[in-house]
Amino acid sequence: MVSLFDDLHSEEDLLREKLRTLKASEHELKQQNAYLTALHETSLGLIDRLDKKELLESILHRACLMTGTEHGYIYLPGPGKNEMQMRVGMGFFNGQLGRRVKRGEGMGGKVWDAEGPVLVDDYHTWPGRLTDSSLDTLHSIVGIPLMSGKNVEGVIGLARVNDKKRFGKADINILSRFAQLALIALEKARLYADVKQQLAERKKTEATLRESEERYRSLLESSPDPIVVYDMQGNATYVNPVFALTFGFSFDELVGKQVDFVPEENWPETRHAIDQMKKGKKINLFETRRFTQKGKILDVQISSTLYLDRKGRHAGNIVTLRDISALKQNEKELKKYRELLEERVEDRTVELARANVQLEAEIEERKRVEAALRRGEKDLKAQSHHLEEVNTALKVLLKQRENDKTELQENVLSNVKELVIPYIQRLQKSRMNTNQATLVNILDSNLNNIISPFISRLSSRFLNFTPMEIRVANLVKEGKTNKEIAEMLFLSKNTILFHRHNIRTKLGLKGTKINLRTHLLSYETDQAGMKIEN
Length: 534
Description:
By secondary structure, this protein is of the alpha+beta class. Among the domains are: 49-197, 2-Layer Sandwich (Beta-Lactamase), CATH 3.30.450; 452-533, Winged helix-like DNA-binding domain superfamily/Winged helix DNA-binding domain (Arc Repressor Mutant, subunit A, Orthogonal Bundle), CATH 1.10.10. It is built from 16 helices and eleven strands. The strands form two sheets. The protein has a six-stranded antiparallel sheet with strand order 3-2-1-6-5-4, with helices on both faces. Strands 8-7-11-10-9 form a five-stranded antiparallel sheet, with helices on both faces. Helix 13 (467-477) packs across helix 15 and helix 13 (467-477) crosses helix 16. The longest helix has 95 residues, at 325-419. The chain starts with a helix and ends with a helix. The relative contact order is 0.06.
């Protein structure tokens, strides 16, 4: 059974690798199809649109889609000949409309001055950038001049905002194609404006239209898709070079004739498409089949639109065909591999069902083992609970013992301070000889060292305190004034102030407004809190 599973996994991996290869090919074809579709639809838009801004926006939108960005711009000459103005903007540049640049200024001015493509990897650090801080978010940016002969008619460009991805040569090639379309759109808009303003100049208008037709012919001939132009009777009046290369029919063989390359079984759908087109509807990416001159059948996508003559009447239609035979073949192969994979999955399902029976038996055995483990775990939990209760009782006893110890210390401390120290202080103030005074002072010092947790803590934490500084700190903590401390220790008031200064310095209180007595009392509070926590 293991060997069978290994074979199935190996075959499944092989099928998946083939599927990935097919999907990659399909993705590449779809990407190329999207690029050609964009050029095709933009080209059709040049035929039936007149508004210059709408044409430029459509071209810029298509260029952005094909290069994977949302930000594009078009500069056109401003009112003065020495500057250009941003007339069309998308994404980031929608808020930059109206910006003016002179020759050599910023990206638009640099492209204008260079009369060729300019590519900047990071506009933020580019020396030629404009100083406007609103442009700081721009990164990779590219611009191409709209060249008409030797004249720069504008600048078209793309940018990336907050995106580390950079433009490359492929993006420049794509943008160059759309720059040509933009130039044609500007030319068409200019021609249309001239026609409206100069209707009386018929000869000049006809010459201009002929020039425009030549431009359109150049556009059709540069198209990567086969194109054929029909009159309203269905006779071919023009085929581009790609049409002759794809289907084998030349212009001389077809001019004035109908192109007989529709398979019999595809005529019904073709007639329906023709009827729809004659009603004024556009045919967009209509899938059908066509013959080549040698009899080979190709799967094609057809797009068609009517065009008008000079009097505004329907003069014929322009048909663009795209060979999608490779894409269709890939789809068939993909379908075949899917069916094969489904068969393999069915076979594997049968084997898995058999394995499931064995697994169910193993699961039942594991359940019995787990039940035994749970019973043992329950006994362990009971023992653990008992130990926790014993531990809790011990903690309570230890805490009570600590509390009793603290209470005893506090009682001893309170009694000594109330019943012994006041009398020692009175002795210190009475008339005694030198030996008696010395003995009383020693007695007072030893009592303080015995009863004061503060003294022991202070001396242990701050080993750099002198014995006299410890005594002064203890009396300050007790609330004694400098004068009272001086009298009790038989020192001058200035000496006490000197010791207080040293104490504050060693405690890190020098230069602060913290009260020394409050700070010293906090050590007793901290010690009491530590005892309670312990």
